[in-house]
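Lab notebook, bench 4. Still working through the backlog of constructs that have no structural model yet. Next entry is a single chain of 292 residues. Request: give me the C-alpha cells for it.
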Amino acid sequence: MRYRVIGLGLSALLIWGCGDGVAGPSGADAAGDTGCEATVPAPPTGPIAPEPVGDEDAPTGTVTGRLVHPDGAPIEGLRLLACTASICYWDDTDADGRFEVSDLTLEGLKMQVGDPTGGHLDLIFYHLLDTEEISELATDVIVPMRDAEQPTPWSDEGGTVTLAGGALELSVEPGALAYAFGTKEEAVRGMRVEGVDLPPYDWAPWSDEIEETFAFVVNPVAIEVDPGATVRVHGVTDAPCAVYRVWTVAAKKGTVSYAGTATVLEGDEGLTLVSDPDAVIGALTTLVFSPL
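Model written out:
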C-alpha cells in the first residue's frame, strides 16, 4: 500500500512521541588551548547532488528495500517515507520487513524510517532513484530498538543534555535550538550506532575507517542548532590528541556534510572526544565520527 503526504516543505514529516534534566557543560572544554598539535588534511569532497525534477511529466520510478534488526531479523509495521523535493509517499513494511514506494520522480530521495508504536529509533538516510525500473536499496537498513532511557527535556533555554547512557553531551546557546514543525515534546534521546550499522547515504567518506567509525542517532529527527552545538563523547579509548572528523546528516535531504573536527582531550573525567571550536554542528539528526 502507498500513501501520499500532502504538506510540503516540512523538514520532518514523521514525528511520533519521544517520551532527566539539563545541566551545564562538563568534562574537557571545547575552547582554549588543548595542548594538541595536529595537521588535519582537507576533507574529501562529496558527490554533486542531482537537480530536483520540477516537470510534472518527468519519468518516475519505484524504490524498494528491507528494514531489519541488527541481527538481520525483519521488522514488520515500520513506516518508510520517501521524499522528492516536492512530495512524499510512504509504505509500511510487511512481515519480511520490505517496503515499496512508487510514483517518485527520478532524483535523490530523502528516506525516513519511523515506528508508529515508538519501539524503534527514527532514521533519515538517502537513496538516488535513477531508473524507471524498480530501484532496490544496496543493503538492508538496520533500525535500532529504542533503549529504556527516557527522553531528556531540552528547551529553547539551551544548556547541555546528556544522552546515550552518559556517552554523549550536546551543548547549545540559549535560543539556538529549533525542533521540527509538529514536534510534540521538546525532549531528546540519543543512541550510539557503529559505523558498519549506519544506513546508506549519498556517500560514506568514512568507508576506509568503517570499523573505527561510530555515530549517534538523535531523536526526534530534524533538530537544528544555530549557532552550532558543542559535542562531547565520553568513554573514548583513543590516545589524547587523537583527531576525528565529524559528519552530519541533513534532515531535509538525507545527505552527509562535513562539520569539522573533534579532538580527544584528557580531563578530570578521563578521555573525552570534544568538537573543536571551529566545528559547525548545526544538524543533530545523526552525528558521525570517523578517525583520521
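Notes after review: Confidence is low (pLDDT under 50) at residues 1-32. The longest strand covers residues 256-267. Flag for follow-up if needed.
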